Amino acid sequence: MPIPTLLRDTWAGALDLVFAPVCVGCREPVPTVDSRRIVCRLCWMKCRPLPVPRCARCWSPVDPHREPSPVCRTCDEWPAGVRAIRSAFAMGEVPRALVHALKYGGWSAAAEPMAARMAAMEWPRDTVDEARLVVPVPTSAARTRERGYNQAALLARGYAAKTGRVTREDVLARVRATATQTALHPGERRANVARAFAVPAGRAAELRGEHVILVDDVWTTGATALSCAEALVEAGTRAVSVATFARVVPELERS
């Protein structure tokens, strides 16, 4: 027998008094009327997209007065196999809080609404038509044990489910330990993750000719994602597009 609406709402209100859900972003109570109880509406409103104009390939902000070009100074030397980079939001107070909660705070449930925002991103036509596999950036076994999960894998699963694609977590592996990237400069980041990833033996055939969407939580300098893309392309992947929840934009960070 269906529960009457008044009784259901009264019960939900009583539960909120005892177990009031709080927003991952601002740690304030989330109103009962919100269907999504992980991140409040105000925090989502504070998340900013990457500023325009931006490079059509990598979405880096570009000078509005520059000559039209298919690439920018950020991505003009990247391998041709790296097709496109997309990030749902520019890094800021709320995106940083959400990433930190997912990555270090044990808030695994935050991955679902974060992935939903990633799923709304626009891609070049060939990425939309061709990419059917979603691959998360691997983390080390030690970090997986410490956190209880790989945050990129949670985002990849949510993203694949929202976009009708297939997640593959066994076709890319971290083959050597690396130091944390947090305090490293761009050149140090690239050296730190160089040859840190590889396609396991026997998995290359599954990637041959595929267009893969690689998923991570944050794009900072791109060192980690580009190292992963290099390993995928060397194994026979035809193209790699990269999706992240947030992107560090130095100009916005300084302001």
Secondary structure: elements and pairs:
Blueprint: H1 5-18, H2 41-46, E1 82-90, H3 93-104, H4 111-119, H5 125-130, E2 133-136, H6 141-147, H7 151-163, E3 166-167, E4 173-174, H8 186-193, E5 197-198, H9 204-207, E6 211-219, H10 223-234, E7 239-247, H11 250-254
Parallel strand pairs: 1-7, 2-3, 2-6, 6-7
Antiparallel strand pairs: 4-5
**CATH class designation of the largest domain:** Alpha Beta
Largest sheet: 5 strands, parallel
Overall outline: globular
Give the mean pLDDT. 87
Helix content: 25-40%
CA gyration radius, whole angstroms: 20 Å
CATH fold name of the largest domain, please?
Rossmann fold
Structural class: alpha/beta
Summed up, the helix count is 11
Second rung of CATH, namely the architecture of the largest domain: 3-Layer(aba) Sandwich
Query: Which regions are unreliable across 5 or more consecutive residues at pLDDT < 50?
Result: none
Tell me the strand percentage band: 5-15%
Please give the number of β-strands: 7
Distance between the termini: 57 Å
Enumerate the strands of the largest sheet in spatial order, edge to edge or round the barrel. 1-7-6-2-3
**Overall tally of domains:** 2
Plain-language structure description:
This protein is α/β, with parallel strands linked by helices and 255 residues long. It has 2 domains: 1-46, no CATH class; 49-254, Rossmann fold, CATH 3.40.50. The protein is 38% helix and 15% strand. The chain contains 11 helices and 7 strands. The strands form 2 sheets. The protein has a 5-stranded parallel β-sheet, with helices on both faces. Strand 6, helix 10 (223-234) and strand 7 (239-247) form a beta-alpha-beta unit. Helix 4 (111-119) packs across helix 7 (151-163). It is globular and about 55 Å long.
